[in-house]
Design brief:
Length: 138
């Protein structure tokens, strides 16, 4: 089962990279690049976009979707951090999550997703959150 789940996560990361790049955000790795792990970086260049994205990922989660993550002073970090993870297992890196330090250039690190459809849903909800707040136009 593990190879299948990792494949689903990778497929979700490629989807995220493709759609975020298409609407103008820098991504790493690019959707066409060879991948070495399940992490997808998205460069937002401003805190509002970053926060909306992470809050959208949380809203699309199977656990604690009603929770609204906010940046906070987390011990061990040199800046505030926002973390979205509505996962069944706390700290699980294969379940969908997104987190970021709240400092320029405002890069979110999305990872995981047990099934592709969940990653796709989370990313689409994050985009809708950004549209609703007037951050982007689709």
């Amino acid at each position: 089962m593990a190879p299948h789940v990792v494949g689903e996560s990778l497929k979700g990361a490629v989807f995220c990279a493709a759609i975020m790049k298409r609407i103008g955000f820098e991504v790493s790795p690019d959707c066409s690049e060879k991948r070495g792990d399940i992490i997808q970086a998205i460069k937002f260049n401003n805190p509002e976009s970053l926060i909306a994205f992470c809050q959208g990922i949380q809203k699309g989660s199977p656990v604690d979707a009603f929770v609204t993550p906010e940046p906070w002073d987390m011990p061990g970090y040199d800046s505030r951090v926002i973390m979205a993870a509505g996962a069944f297992v706390q700290g699980s890196s294969i379940e969908l999550s997104a987190d970021a330090p709240m400092k320029p250039p405002y890069i979110a690190y999305m990872q995981g997703g047990l099934v592709y459809e969940h990653v796709k849903l989370g990313v689409l909800i994050a985009l809708q959150m950004m549209v609703n707040r007037g951050i982007i136009k689709l």
